[in-house]
Amino acid sequence: MNKKYTVKYKLGDKVLTSHDLENEDYRLEIVDNEKEYKVKIVPKKTIEMVEFFSEMPYEFKSGDKFFANGYQSWSTSKEYTSSEIMKGVIKLAKISEFTKGLARKTSDEWMIDYTYKKGEFHSHCYTYVRNGEAVKFFGSLNENTGYTYFKVKMNENRFYFCKDLLGKVLESEWQIFDIVMFGGTYDEVFDSYFALWDMPETRNGMMSGYTSWYNYFQDIDENIILRDLDGLDEYKEQVSIFQIDDGYETFIGDWLDDNPKKFPHGMKYIADKIHNKGYKAGIWLAPFNCQKISRMAKEHPEWLIKDDNGKPMVGCIAWGGAYTFDIYNEGVREYLKKVFDVVLNDWGYDMVKLDFLYSQCIKPRHGKCRGEIMCDAMAFLRECVGDKLFLGCGVPIGPALGVVDACRISCDVDLVYSGKYYNFIQVSNEIPSAQNAINNSIFRRHLNGRAWMNDPDVFFLRKNNLTFTDEQKFILGKINNLCGNVLFVSDNAGDYDEKSGKLLRQFFEKTDEKIISADLIDGEIFKIKTEKDGKQNEFNFNLKKGIMLN
């Protein structure tokens, strides 16, 4: 194929840009045909990479839709037409370097510029161009050598293959691209792609049950948890897991410190109570993070990722801002191994939900690029978790492939269906939103059962502490059931009326109904065709308003 290459790198103090396939500093080795595209760089001297991409002409036709896979679990993922604009962090958040840094902490804007031009989009790890039932697919097989992303300028008929290699020091050959290409129907191309990955056997499993976050957030205690555990008694046959979310710990990072005020009998006691009901016990951790006021941050400042001035970097803005442990520090590795050993073996939890994982690669370091660091981090976590269940959240999609058993594929839902003020101004592509969670569940449905068990986040059936109509609750529950194999509520099911209890049983029962096509019209109307028992059905609704149309 006719491609132009751009290689930007440092040689000593000089930053050089070259379009050559070979010069006195490096050589590119290329395999390029209709089924695969591989690029290897062979340095002739030590160089530090800054940027690498190739571009080619691509004829976009009327009716083409480009799939933009978001950077991490929470990032917006959808199909775009050439007349649409891909939005990033709002301009208001960029009034200063400080606010800009906070707003884009969860996003990919430290890696990619959003042009805000019609028809200009990008997609992480894999993408496709769809026209009706015909799909042309492009997918990376080697995110451990850096983040792969695809960019298009549909109105200029340009297609770009990009690799985030910032900070990668090359002393020997390095595989930049290992990309495969398929043509076929939607299901055919994803079947072909994921057949090339070594996926966990658990990807075809299912978890249905409870997580504490979306009713109490951090305000949980032993009484609340045990009450809600008892509340599921009437639905025992449909429940397989009960998960404790954020709020049981003293501070983020101090995972093993006792919290007798909230949980006087300790966390093993809770796991035992869950097991007595016949359920698996799950628990939440943000293993790479520690609050500024945590004991770990105070006692081990040498464990933290530092900025260029030697100050600890804030890896996420939650909890008033939290620092990030550097997994390349041996003390960090030993501490986290101990945490997982206690949580999984001493306390006896069967599943860990590991959150805010993107923070590990906020900075290229140790001669490694960000994608390489993230893949190292995921491999380390898998080692720590062993054969227990690993639910990833807030994790870049590519490095999670082949590692996790289940994964969040949407942003957090909100307790208000219509959204709060930050939904209307779209602060970023990762902001909590029921509508965006539904959107992502539909457009990332291809991951379910192929890569892992999709976690589309919770659905709601309760009547209190929630601003949803019954119709909106039904739409969310229906989509979660169609697109996910991790089906959770955060309700005290003991308060359900007969109608809510019936819906819980319905949505906790994995359906054999399958989506055969899904189209989003004008960013508002979803038209979904499904098939069950050889019969085709339609499920159409207004996404913004949460109103069914058929």
Structure description:
The chain has 550 residues and is an alpha+beta fold. The chain has a domain at 4-194. It is built from 13 helices and 29 strands. The strands form five sheets. An eight-stranded parallel sheet has the order 24-23-22-21-17-16-15-25. Strands 1, 2, 5, 8, 11, 12 and 13 form a seven-stranded antiparallel sheet that branches. A seven-stranded antiparallel sheet has the order 3-4-14-10-9-6-7. A hairpin with a 2-residue loop joins strand 1 (4-11) and strand 2 (14-18). Helix 11 (434-443) packs parallel to helix 12. The protein is globular. The model has no long low-confidence stretch (mean pLDDT 96).
Strand content: 25-35%
Instruction: Give the structural class.
Output: alpha+beta
Query: What is the count of β-strands?
Result: 29
| Shape, per Cα inertia axes | globular
Largest sheet, spatial ordering of strands: 24-23-22-21-17-16-15-25
Query: What does the average pLDDT come to?
Result: 96
